[in-house]
Write a structure and sequence with these properties.
This protein is mostly helical. The chain contains 20 helices and no strands. The chain is globular, with a radius of gyration of 21 Å. The mean pLDDT is about 85.
């Protein structure tokens, strides 16, 4: 245990040190927000992958597989598909805009009212995303440290808020490259194969229903479709991902990095599937409210040094996503809400948004519900109007249609989710339906 904790403390201290060093390069708004648009294919692939492989791809997916079986992998399959489609279609268009944020791109496509509405909706969903990642990191560290779970949430939040606030995009990218390498080593090449060989002789004990794929009794066809689109759409249109694409050297760099990140996301999906199935064998019988700890408890059985490296990898998974989302939110607050490219405003915003996310994490304390809240509202409200906007010459979408789409999709999906998905229709399906109707009705057919 001593070695495991020591490795993690050294790792977290290194991240803060990188933030301090990076702060020297982040004096201007362009360097703080966009790393001077100098990022080449390999580091861009690393930072996008590190961003998209977060709590939903690991802790949440593992918990769902532990409880409901392999169809839960559609979370990761949907995300990977979204990234590959992004690379093949929109990545070069996003980079070509030369702008700073997704809401700014939205304003460029429509008008300032749509931009402002999008900015508010994005920040609200990003608070939920960051909360999800804090919970994921807390679930890992709570298994290690003999302190209250909520205290571990606070410690994790302080670390990534600190280095993001100090170093901006340079700190995020530098730490993401390191975290990407640790993630690949710890999750894909250590945790997955070692836990598989440890649990494989007993795989026959796993209930047959949990091994069924692509659907089973827990996740039939319609819920699987909902999972798939809930994750596909935010990876096709995502503020944190777009903030990375806008740092790319060229449009070609952005295209390549998005596709490669999609392929890496598939690798992580396979690895998490193996780890989660192994956890069913090695840590059996956990109740639903404790299932989030199944994967960490399986890993800790591998010994202090090895589990220390693997836990550092999973902490990397959470922090590398949280810092990117947090920086994106702070950037949007400065550029799109206050309409100023002011680094100080962004840093204050990063602090405030990080603290709000921490409060939400302490209040909700359910990673799957947090995931559904964040991804459902974002997918339903924001993705379709932006995709329609990129292809305005063909869709003839108007600013009025986009505004109504944002409001109706986000509001109805949130209401539907709060009512517990009536008629067994998922809030994502309802929200996307509500979002597309105004886009089809309010069109400028003269164009």
């Amino acid at each position: 245990m001593y070695w495991t904790i020591t490795i993690l403390i050294l790792y977290l201290s290194t991240l803060i040190l990188i933030g301090i060093i990076s702060s020297k390069k982040s004096k201007t708004s362009k360097s703080f927000y966009l790393a001077d648009r100098k990022i080449s294919t390999l580091p861009l692939t690393a930072t996008i992958t590190a961003t998209v492989v977060g709590g939903s791809a690991t802790i949440a997916t593992a918990k769902m597989i532990y409880l409901y079986g392999l169809p839960s992998l559609w979370l990761d399959i949907g995300a990977a598909t979204g990234l590959i489609i992004l690379g093949l279609t929109l990545a070069k268009i996003v980079r070509k805009t030369g702008l700073y944020t997704l809401p700014e791109i939205t304003g460029h496509l429509f008008d300032n009212k749509v931009r402002y509405t999008a900015a508010i909706l994005i920040i609200l969903t990003q608070i939920a995303w960051i909360s999800l990642l804090i919970q994921g990191a807390g679930a890992i560290t709570a298994v290690l440290f003999p302190i209250n779970y909520k205290i571990t949430l606070i410690i994790i939040a302080i670390v990534f808020i600190t280095y993001t606030l100090l170093g901006g995009q340079y700190a995020v990218i530098y730490t993401d490259v390191i975290q990407f390498l640790i993630m690949i080593l710890g999750v894909c090449f250590l945790a997955a194969p070692i836990l598989y060989f440890k649990a494989a002789p007993m795989f026959s004990n796993i209930p047959a229903e949990q091994l069924k794929f692509p659907v089973n009794d827990s996740y039939s066809f319609l819920p699987v479709i909902s999972l798939f689109f809930m994750m596909l759409m935010p990876h096709l249109v995502g503020p944190d991902i777009y903030s990375k694409l806008l740092t790319a050297k060229t449009e070609k760099t952005a295209t390549k990095a998005a596709i490669l990140s999609g392929l890496f996301r598939i690798l992580f999906a396979i690895s998490i599937g193996i780890i989660a199935l192994s956890a069913i064998i090695l840590v059996p019988g956990l109740p639903p409210d404790q299932a989030i700890f199944a994967m960490p408890q399986a890993i800790i059985q591998l010994g202090p040094i090895l589990s220390g490296i693997i836990f550092a990898a999973f902490i990397s998974v959470m922090l590398s996503s949280a810092d990117s989302v947090l920086l994106s939110a702070g950037t949007i607050l400065s550029i799109d809400i206050t309409k100023k490219k002011n680094v100080l405003i962004s840093r204050i915003g990063i602090l405030i948004i990080g603290l709000l996310a921490l409060i939400l994490a302490l209040y909700l304390n359910d990673i799957i519900q947090t995931l559904k809240l964040a991804y459902t509202v974002f997918t339903s409200g924001l993705t379709l109007p932006i995709i329609f906007g990129f292809y305005k010459t063909k869709t003839h979408v108007t600013s009025k249609g986009a505004m109504l789409s944002l409001i109706s999709g986000g509001t109805i999906s949130l209401l539907w989710l709060s009512l517990g998905n009536p008629f067994q229709i998922d809030a994502v399906i309802t929200g996307l339906t509500a979002s597309i109707i105004p886009l089809l009705i309010f069109r400028d057919v003269k164009k």
